[in-house]
Design a protein that fits this description.
single chain, 198 residues, alpha/beta, Rossmann fold, two-stranded antiparallel ribbon
């Protein structure tokens, strides 16, 4: 098994960065090779340009997009780690979707609608919010952030299994609670990469 981690959080110190550390540790513990695509450190260009559009229409992509597509193709497990801003991903990650998950590569349209082309892959999404679970549920934002990434992106492109975990009120809870959250990150990854006993 190989994994690709998409990480979208600027700076060096945050709960999101700690989730990345724990994810890598869990993969290493299981002997799983991985690539980390730290979009901010890469200075990933997120804006879909007219040239990008023309290339996709002609069945080709730019070299930077081709590199990302090769990494995703090679991966069995896709892990996304990011904070929730404005009830969605940071713009740099949304731009990654726009530019990398192209028509003809990640999905195509057929007579009966869109068909995902990335079957055989699994995905884990770790997000975090300043808001509490109760605050999010009150206005339906808990459902919104999950549906948008799980159904709107990952299931749409054909991922066979997707798990989303949001860790709420991370700036408000105790250190012990944050430690429990980080253990849950490790346990979630371990469930994906550890063979089930027969």
């Amino acid at each position: 098994m190989k994994a690709t981690i998409l990480f979208a959080q600027p700076g060096e110190n945050s709960f999101t960065h700690e989730m990345l550390v724990r994810t890598k540790a869990a993969l290493e513990q299981a002997g799983i090779s991985y690539n980390v695509r730290d979009l901010y450190k890469m200075n990933f260009q997120p804006v879909l340009s007219p040239d990008d559009m023309e290339r996709v229409e002609n069945g080709s992509v730019s070299s930077d997009i081709g590199e990302e597509q090769e990494l995703l193709t090679d991966a069995d497990l896709l892990v996304m780690i990011y904070p929730i801003w404005w009830w969605s991903q940071p713009a740099i990650l949304k731009g990654y979707f726009d530019r990398v998950l192209t028509h003809g590569y990640a999905f195509r349209y057929e007579e009966n609608g869109p068909v995902g082309l990335m079957h055989g892959k699994q995905a884990i999404v770790f997000t975090c919010t300043r808001e509490s679970e109760a605050e999010m549920k009150k206005d339906g934002f808990d459902t919104l952030i999950k549906k948008q990434i799980v159904d709107g992106v990952l299931s749409f492109i054909g991922c066979d299994r997707v798990v989303h975990k949001n860790f709420a009120a991370v700036s408000e809870v105790t250190d012990q609670k944050r430690s429990e959250m980080l253990r849950e990150v490790e346990e979630t990854v371990a469930q994906f990469v550890t063979p089930v006993p027969v």
